[in-house]
Fold this protein.
Amino acid sequence: MDEADFRESDGTISAFADQLRWETNPNCQEGLKRLLIKEEDRFGAVIERLDMVERNLAQGGELIARQRRLIDNLKIHGGDSERAEKLLDNIVMTQALFEQFRELIFRAREQRFDGFGECGA
């Protein structure tokens, strides 16, 4: 697998994640979720993917914090926060997918190194 394939896949994953974060149609959400997972699985859980996952987790964390502030502000001023809360649910769900993918990468890495024994033993 070459660097161009990784860059293309990283861009595709980021695009699906951005769409998923803001999609309100449940059917479209499920389709985007399947596409995101399929693209993540396309190259497997390799450590090179970790940078992309960490970037998306950082972006998602910022979006979650911003959306929570928006919701709090809406509630303080008597506004309707229902749509903003649904969008927050999307962002949190997308964040969970990236957290699962990061965990998969770490587990795959541990499995690769299990056969080498412990250093200094």
Q: What stands out?
A: Confidence is low (pLDDT under 50) at residues 116-121. The longest helix spans residues 82-114.
